[in-house]
Design a protein that fits this description.
The complex is a heterodimer. Chain A is mainly α. Chain A is built from eleven helices and six strands. Chain B is built from twelve helices and 15 strands. In chain B, the strands form three sheets. A seven-stranded mixed sheet of chain B has the order 8-7-9-10-11-14-15, sandwiched between helices. In chain B, strands 2-3-1-4-5-6 form a six-stranded mixed sheet. In chain B, a hairpin with a 2-residue loop joins strand 14 and strand 15. In chain B, helix 5 (about 135-150) crosses helix 6 (about 165-180). Chain B is globular. The chains are: A mainly alpha, B alpha/beta. Chain A: Pfam families: BPD_transp_2. Chain A: Its main location: membrane.
Chain lengths: ~325, ~375
């Protein structure tokens, strides 16, 4: 690997990592407040992409409005999932909630297969083309393969800047909600102790429903940007990104929002560098991500930026 | 009394209609569901044209393998044990045909795959056959195309390590290309991957003039997009795994100039009556031109039906033997001869994507 390829791979890794980071924020927020690993996160992500897809193709709604509606619809979906699936077992052991989350995930995937069909569709004409353009740094023009092309130069996808901006905005809004609003205060209280919070006169169900809606909206934003970068959608598209976001969240310290961002970037970089330095290992990159998960859980279970929590007896 | 008589007659006529069951095992959901759908369209056309054999109705049942190796074996087992089928039409991808074929072999049930091109699918088996060419030939044709027609000397092969089809085709391409005097090197990925930027950066560093991607359309389209984004504008060459409209709908401008080897193109010279019949009926029914996999689905159905006709019974053993003795059968994709190994010997069509359309380029015959 020469310096140029290394720098290009650095960009490739950060570009992938920024997506993982964005998806991981929603994942880790729901965990941080409810101590629930919401395995359905990746499937809400998928549903949001389908919402936007059908709004644009069938509904002929402009893309920006479709994206906003899809994000709101995903928030509503998250709220509904909480009411239907998690609320009835709020006081059951935590393992029940985990199993329910897996059930919800399977349900959403199967639902999508039945209703939207299992065939991959194209997300290419949904958003304006400039998002898929590349920013080219350096390089020189040359006639190659019978056409003028820019040879050399570092290439950065425009959409990666959008992802970075969206992630930054999402972080600021999240920080504002959690630390500056009443519902944010309630969320922080719920994260410490649910029964006591409800004794204080807080409507815990509403707070939890809001948390799910917020988390799902973040999943939707991640999904839409993911589909802009990798323009195809199919019912299982949320599965791997969801798992990777989970790994990123654990990597950075599950429950910690800064941790999710750091974990996402590190995971993206590690994956790309693994392929870059050891091309033969490329087929094992998912396995490698899981290896990171296992190592983190066995060496530093609280993650890079996580706090060691004291288990209440 | 009259009512009773009517019911009785209907009941009698239903009972007297004997059926022959064929299980259709295809990926109807999941990564390569588009392929399953295309094969099924061809099978439907064939079934509408020729719904019976030896005076008995042919009954088709779909079993979905969900684009999954383990589910592929399960689906074949379910077709045989629960569906009680006389023959199996199916499995698109070689990996699934390998998994499902092992079950068919164990249960001594004839199976005809429309499109699995890896040699291992039929080798050493008595009950599994195919109506398509095999990868040593397809790989050879792709290498000849790259070296002689496109004049490239240094090719990066993007190999899907999870698919037997891709691994086989990559190696057969490499053999011929090196014999011709070219150089190859490998980049690896896995079905379902979406980010290929690291592999493409590496291929460009190594000085690839063309990419050979012997995988399936989902990844081919994404590799094409990312290759163009990263500044690679050389030719892309693939196998029949790219022969789906999704390659164009997902790949867009990026797949313009992509060449692939395949079994059939409506513009390639039609040689048989069945080819005309198929093209006519298909365009009438679906209002679009058929893809190679639909033609192969049609052929697989026709070959099974022909074998049942010659066997004269629904006996699995007899049908299996009859399939292996198929000679000069006029299929939609050309004349089909199935040899002792269960392989069909046919020519390969080269198709190029231009302005978002599949354009027929040329035909390469076995030398």
């Amino acid at each position: 690997m020469n310096l140029y390829t290394f720098l290009q791979n650095l960009i490739n890794g950060l570009s992938l990592g920024s997506l993982y980071a964005l998806i991981a924020i929603g994942y880790t927020m729901v965990y941080g407040i409810l101590r629930l690993i919401n395995f359905a996160h990746g499937d809400v992500f998928m549903m949001a992409v389908y919402f936007a897809f059908f709004l644009v193709t069938l509904g002929k709604v402009p893309w920006l409005i479709s994206f906003v509606i899809a994000i709101l619809a995903a928030a509503l979906l998250g709220f509904t999932i909480d009411r239907v699936a998690y609320k009835p077992i709020r006081n059951a052991p935590r393992i029940s909630a985990l199993i329910t989350a897996i059930g919800v995930s399977f349900f959403l995937e199967s639902f999508a297969v039945v209703v939207f069909s299992g065939i991959p569709r194209s997300f290419r004409n949904i958003y304006p083309k400039f998002l898929n353009n590349m920013l080219i740094l350096g390089g020189h023009e040359e006639v190659k393969y019978g056409r003028n092309v820019i040879v050399g130069g570092l290439r950065i996808p425009i959409v990666s800047f959008v992802i970075l901006a969206v992630t930054a905005i999402a972080l600021v809004i999240l920080w504002w909600i959690i630390y500056k609003t009443k519902i944010g205060m309630a969320m922080r209280a719920v994260s410490v102790d649910i029964p006591t919070t409800s004794l204080m006169g807080v409507n815990v169900d509403r707070v939890i429903g809001f948390t799910f809606a917020l988390g799902s909206a973040l999943a939707a934003i991640g999904g839409l940007l993911w589909a802009t970068r990798y323009p195809q959608l199919w019912p299982y598209m949320g599965f791997m990104p969801g798992l990777k976001a989970f790994i990123a969240a654990v990597f950075g310290g599950i429950g910690s929002i800064q941790g999710a961002v750091v974990g996402g970037f590190l995971l993206g970089l590690t994956e790309i560098m693994l392929v870059g330095f050891f091309p033969k290992m490329a087929g094992y990159r998912d396995a490698f991500a899981f290896l990171i998960l296992i190592l983190i859980l066995s060496i530093k279970p609280e993650g890079l930026l996580g706090k060691r929590s004291v288990v209440k007896v | 009394m009259k009512k009773f008589l009517v019911v009785f007659v209907i009941l009698l006529s239903v009972l007297s209609l004997a059926t022959i069951k064929i299980g259709v095992v295809l990926p109807m959901t999941g990564g390569i569901a588009a392929f399953g759908r295309m094969v099924w369209e061809g099978v439907e056309v064939a079934h509408e044209l020729f719904p019976d054999v030896n005076g008995e109705t042919i009954e088709l049942t779909i079993f979905d393998n969900r684009s999954d190796k383990i589910e592929a074996a399960n689906a074949v087992r379910r077709a045989i044990d629960v569906g009680n089928v006389s023959a199996i039409l199916g499995e698109v991808a070689s990996s699934y045909s390998l998994a499902g074929g092992a079950v068919a072999e164990e249960k001594k049930t004839p199976m005809v795959t429309p499109s699995s091109t890896n040699p291992l699918v039929t080798s050493g088996k008595k009950y599994v056959s195919r109506v398509c060419f095999i990868d040593p030939f397809q790989g050879w044709a792709a290498a000849v195309l790259a070296f002689e027609n496109l004049g490239v000397r240094n090719v990066a092969i993007f190999m899907d390590v999870e698919q037997d089809y891709a691994v086989g085709l990559a190696n057969f391409f490499m053999q011929t290309f090196q014999e011709l005097g070219g150089q190859v090197f490998f980049e690896y990925y896995k079905s379902g991957d979406q980010d290929f930027t690291a592999q493409i950066s590496d291929a460009m560093l190594t000085g690839a003039e063309a990419l050979f991607i012997p995988g399936y359309y989902q990844e081919i389209a994404l590799i094409a997009i990312q290759a163009r984004q990263l500044g690679f504008f050389g030719p892309l060459i693939t196998g029949d795994g790219a022969d789906a409209p999704e390659t164009i709908s997902i790949g867009g401008d990026a797949v313009n100039g992509l060449y692939f080897t395949t079994h059939y193109h409506p513009d390639s010279p039609a040689v048989t009556e069945n080819a005309k019949l198929f093209l006519e009926r298909y365009t009438e029914k679906f209002n679009k031109i058929p893809a190679a996999l639909s033609a192969l689905g049609f052929d697989a159905y026709m070959v099974i039906r022909d074998a049942i006709m010659r066997a004269g019974s629904a006996d699995r053993e007899a049908i299996a033997q009859a399939i292996r003795s198929t000679t000069n059968f006029p299929g939609a994709t050309g004349i089909i001869n199935i040899d002792n190994e269960g392989n069909a010997v046919k020519s390969v069509a080269i198709v190029k994507i231009e302005d978002g359309q599949f354009k027929y380029e040329t035909t390469i015959n076995p030398r």
